[in-house]
Each structure stands twice: as C-alpha cells, then as structure tokens.
C-alpha cells in the first residue's frame, strides 16, 4: 500500500472512531470514508520558494467563525497546473518552523469544500527541503474541520491564495447526508 493510500485509510479511521474526530455521532454512524480525487502525479512538485524577509510583518487571517489568527508570510511558490500558471503563499508561525498553505481553487464550492483546503507540515504534503526549495504534494490537500462541523474555527485562505485553476487532487466535498 502506498503512502497516500495508507494515510487516507488512517484519516478515515480517525474520522469514524477517534474521540477527537470533528464528526458528530450521526455522521460517524453513517460514515463510509472521505471522498478523494485519484492520485495525480503532476501535482507532486519540488519547487523553488521565494522567501519573504524575516522582517515580514504578521498578518491576521480571518477564520470561519469571525476570529483572526496571526501568521507570517514565509514564501511564495509558482508552478503550473495543466499548463496554467499558479502561485501560492506559504505561511508560517513567527519562528518560520510551522508551515501552513491554505488555498481555494476553481473546484472550491462545487467539487471541494467552498472555504478552501489546506496543506501543512504536520501532515504529509508540505516539506521545507532547505536551500530555498519546498516539496508540495497536493494529493494530500485536506478539508479543515469546519467542513464537517460548524463549531470549529478554521482560517480562511487569503485572496492571494485563491487560484483560478482547478486542483483536482486531495480531499473532495464532505457529504453530510450520505444516502
């Protein structure tokens, strides 16, 4: 079993059985696994990152509940999706060790969660390789917990991370009422 398939199975187990799952009791009982796009090799990339200066001020990212969370703009990556240009800003904590990549794309609100999806360095999908390079694997893109439960407060991707291209990789919309 490859790393992506194994990880998705572990997430499904967590969502259905773990006490810290964002799913409520009824959702857990009806849960048959999350929906994902098939693996897309073209969306696994090692990219140069244009790092922002260490003096970059903190930004306040709005959340789904109207709060704000502080992040620093850490670096910008540029790549192509099906021949179309795309660029995203990677955010970090104040020390530049905790990385966060929230984004929306052309699938947001139709095929995927409307508020966007994430990559971070606490899950597979986003790695700082050093020497001005990062590896991203958009097949690991995931929905924030507020996609499953409105009681969670989730950072909303800033406009600079709204892509016009579709990212058909990672997690799809969550079906709250499976048939």
Write the layout of secondary structure elements.
Layout (H helix, E strand, L loop, with lengths): L2 H15 L7 H6 L13 E5 L1 E2 L6 E5 L5 E14 L2 E9 L6 E5 L13 E4 L5 E5 L2 E5 L42
Antiparallel strand pairs: 1-9, 2-4, 3-4, 4-5, 5-6, 6-7, 8-9
Which keywords apply here?
six-stranded antiparallel beta sheet; 30% strand; 2 domains; 9 strands; mainly beta; 179 residues; 2 helices
Structure report:
- This protein has helices spanning 3-17, 25-30, and strands at residues 44-48, 50-51, 58-62, 68-81, 84-92, 99-103, 117-120, 126-130, 133-137.
- Strands 2, 3, 4, 5, 6 and 7 form a six-stranded antiparallel sheet that branches. Strands 1-9-8 form a three-stranded antiparallel sheet, with no helix packed on it.
- With 179 residues, it is mostly beta strands.
- It contains two helices and nine strands, in the order ααβββββββββ.
- 28% of the residues are buried.
- Helices cover 12% and strands 30% of the residues.
- The two termini are 29 Å apart.
The gist of it:
The protein is mainly β and 179 residues long. Helices cover 12% and strands 30% of the residues.
Query: Please, what is the average pLDDT?
Result: 94
Structural class: mainly beta
Give the fraction of residues assigned to helices. Answer: 10-25%
Number of strands: 9
- Beta-strand portion reads 25-35%
- Which stretches are poorly predicted, pLDDT < 50 over at least 5 residues? none
**What is the total domain count?**
2
**Number of helix segments?**
2
Kindly report how far apart the N and C termini lie: 29 Å
Rg, please?
Answer: 16 Å
SSE order, one letter for each helix or strand: HHEEEEEEEEE
Please describe the biggest sheet, giving its number of strands, its sense, and whether it closes into a barrel: 6 strands, antiparallel
Shape: globular
